[in-house]
User: Fold Pilus assembly protein CpaE from Cellulomonas terrae.
Amino acid sequence: MISVSRAEQLHTAGLRWHPSPGDRFAVRTLADQVFTISDMVVEPHEYPTGTVLGFNGTTEWALDSVAQEDALWLPREDQLRELLGGTFRSLARSTDGQYGVLIEHSGRPERLFTADTAADAYAQALLALVTAAVGQV
Assistant:
């Protein structure tokens, strides 16, 4: 799982989240707690005023719901890979234990992003793409 700080960087760079079952997130005021959206426990509810994440059947919590803007998406490795789309070339692990994600974008030379975990390597690559896309707008 990517770190809260890496997820915050992705959000700040412009990555947007459309909550769905299986997604993990942190509540900004409870960043050390990770929640998972499930049709049985946490559901996104759409209202004209915005999306609210409802906590159903959690009697041990005084938390009924939280606005989406107060939640921070923690994308899984497969979600990060999917967001890289056609730019993704490969994932490899080096002999020193580092993971490397290789991407190619817009005919530019391939770029390698390395990290201690595969998820963080994917997140670094995605951060570079999102930052580049926002800079082109």
Q: What stands out?
A: The mean pLDDT is 88. Residues 4-135 form one domain.
